[in-house]
């Protein structure tokens, strides 16, 4: 079941009904940050204890704890956003099928649609999405840079998820993500992510204080997006309506209107 984006009130009525009638309710909170989710309030809402499971439970132990309960009764598994966005959750559903355990998905609001909708960029003009990871041992992965470059060559927008290490309470910010890409730019020198590249930042999508800002990389490095979660979008070729949306909704520089078609 999808928990949505912001807090426990993002649960759909259908998901809430399913949770209330479950014998056991599990939730994971490591694949994404829900900035105002209160587990105690969630338990009051569903009327029963919610057992939080770790990455180890789902990935290393392959969800054994959840499956054991599912063989005895009805289990609801709550996850941030939309349930089937994370590969781990798809794997669990496939495993359940092989065990003869029936499953059903109740979708929730996703950062994918929320980011696209809030920016005003047309969803069918997005190319492959990518995650910008935290640098490991001073090495920055160049996959995000290459994905942005490939999408731009096709005139497509790129949605960049920013890394989350929930166990360590580390959440990549817009500034972190841009600095990681600028590090690769210094090596590649293909002008894919340069100081004058247009980029859009979104923070706390779905929250009352959600923040949206569009400008050049050099400007967004100093833009205060507030608390995470954050996400980045690199626009491709802009339709005139998309450019107007970025100016009106995200305070993009008005000169983007001159390059749109």
- Structural class, judged by helices and strands? alpha/beta
Percent strand:
15-25%
* Total number of domains: 2
Q: What is the radius of gyration computed over CA atoms, rounded to a whole number of angstroms?
A: 20 Å
Count of alpha and pi helical runs: 10
Q: How confident overall, as mean pLDDT?
A: 94
User: Spatial order of the strands in the main sheet?
Assistant: 4-5-10-8-9
Identify low-pLDDT runs.
none
* Straight-line distance between termini: 40 Å
Order of helices and strands: HEHEHHEHHEHEEEHEEHEH
CA-based shape: elongated
Structure in words:
The chain has 261 residues and is α/β, with parallel strands linked by helices. The chain has 2 domains: 8-98, 3-Layer(aba) Sandwich (Cobalt-precorrin-4 Transmethylase, domain 1), CATH 3.40.1010.10; 111-258, Tetrapyrrole methylase, C-terminal domain (Methyltransferase, Cobalt-precorrin-4 Transmethylase, Domain 2). It is built from 10 helices and 10 strands. It has helices at 13-20, 39-46, 55-60, 64-70, 87-98, 111-119, 143-153, 174-188, 217-220, 240-250; strands at residues 24-28, 50-53, 75-78, 130-132, 158-162, 164-165, 170-171, 198-203, 211-216, 230-234. The strands form 3 sheets. It has a 5-stranded mixed beta sheet with strand order 4-5-10-8-9. It has a 3-stranded parallel beta sheet with strand order 2-1-3. Strands 6-7 form a two-stranded antiparallel sheet. Strand 4 (130-132), helix 7 (143-153) and strand 5 form a beta-alpha-beta unit. The mean pLDDT is 94.
């Amino acid at each position: 079941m999808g928990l949505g984006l912001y807090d426990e009130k993002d649960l759909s009525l259908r998901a809430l009904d399913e949770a209330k009638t479950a014998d056991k309710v599990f939730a994971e909170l490591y694949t994404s940050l829900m900035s105002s989710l209160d587990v105690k309030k969630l338990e009051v809402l569903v009327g029963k204890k919610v057992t939080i499971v770790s990455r180890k439970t789902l990935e290393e132990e392959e969800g054994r704890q959840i499956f054991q309960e599912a063989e005895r009764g009805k289990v609801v598994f709550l996850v941030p956003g939309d349930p089937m966005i994370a590969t781990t959750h798809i794997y669990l559903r496939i495993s359940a099928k092989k065990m003869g355990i029936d499953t059903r998905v109740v979708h929730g609001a996703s950062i994918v649609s929320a980011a696209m909708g809030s920016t005003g960029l047309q969803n069918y003009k997005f190319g492959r999405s990518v995650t910008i990871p935290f640098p490991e041992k001073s090495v920055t992965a160049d996959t995000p840079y290459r994905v942005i470059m490939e999408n731009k060559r096709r005139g497509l927008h790129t949605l960049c998820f920013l890394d989350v290490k929930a166990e360590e309470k580390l959440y990549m910010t817009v500034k972190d993500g841009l600095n990681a890409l600028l590090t690769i730019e210094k090596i590649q020198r293909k002008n894919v992510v340069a100081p004058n590249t247009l980029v859009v930042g979104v923070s706390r999508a779905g929250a009352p204080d959600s923040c949206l800002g569009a400008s050049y990389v050099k400007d967004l490095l100093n833009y205060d997006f507030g608390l995470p979660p954050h996400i980045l979008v690199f626009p491709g070729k802009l339709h005139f309506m998309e450019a107007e949306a970025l100016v009106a909704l995200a305070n993009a520089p008005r000169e983007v209107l001159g390059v749109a078609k």
